[in-house]
């Protein structure tokens, strides 16, 4: 973990250093998912909320476009292949 980033988070938020380090670690872990892991996880989460696949694919594609390291445009077909093989 980058100590400079931890110091910046602590200074800009007023959090103690240990808490800022935990926050940074949580954010890094959240964004360390591969595209495939993200798609599978979000598909499960949205299905659990009883959303239909047609709606799920649109939601996931929109979310992927706004991730810090976006995979580029992802078609519905590719999303299906990630989830179902």
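Q: What amino acid sequence fits the structure above?
A:
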């Amino acid at each position: 973990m980058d100590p400079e980033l931890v110091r910046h988070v602590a200074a800009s938020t007023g959090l103690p250093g240990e808490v800022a380090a935990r926050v940074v670690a949580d954010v890094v872990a959240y964004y360390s998912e591969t595209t495939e892991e993200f798609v599978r996880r979000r598909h499960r989460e949205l299905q659990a909320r009883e959303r239909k696949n047609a709606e799920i694919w649109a939601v996931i594609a929109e979310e992927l476009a706004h991730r810090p390291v976006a995979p580029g445009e992802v078609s519905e077909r590719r999303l299906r292949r990630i989830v179902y093989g």
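Q: And what stands out in the fold?
A: The first helix runs from residue 3 to 13.
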